[in-house]
Amino acid sequence: MRNVKLNCIMPPGSFNSGIEKKCYSIYLGNGHLIHLGSLRTANNYMSEINRFINYQIIDLNENYISVYSDYRRAWLYLDPTWTAEYKTIKSLTAKCISIIDTKFESVFTYTGSNAIHNIWSTLNLICDNLTTTCNLLINLFLKRSSYYEIKKIELNRNRSTLIKETLKNYKGPGADSNKAFVKSKKEINLRYS
Length: 193
Known about the structure:
Blueprint: E1 9-10, E2 24-27, E3 32-36, H1 39-75, H2 84-107, H3 115-144, H4 147-169, E4 180-184, E5 191-192
């Protein structure tokens, strides 16, 4: 099975002040920065972060399977002889599906120190496109008064939103231990966990 294996640990001295100058650091793609006292601890954290990213990819792929299945079911309603609105829904949905396919492939090609940020951005983009696809399909099924299909698609949309929120709020595997502290761009205070 394909998986992401990153090593984005910044050595001590990457920052110029205080305790950060003596720590190894991992910068997550959502703006959180984790400082760790030893290379061994940093490697363990990086392994946990890799597991988290791979789990999110698996979850997004499962969601994509459901959304794509809904798209193929809706395809039967997208007759090209119908109104321009149906044609628009069909072309936008096809475009979103194409973007998602392309982005899933690119997740496994990122390397280097900026890879974790690129993967985070790509996963967020996939979530956005899944949500957009779900909204387009909901609009189509609303016109057909197919409420069972709408509820199924709403569940997939909610799942995409939940994955995006999980990515946004992830602070690293050590956010609750005493081995590291997490610093966010949005937080003024240091959080000692």
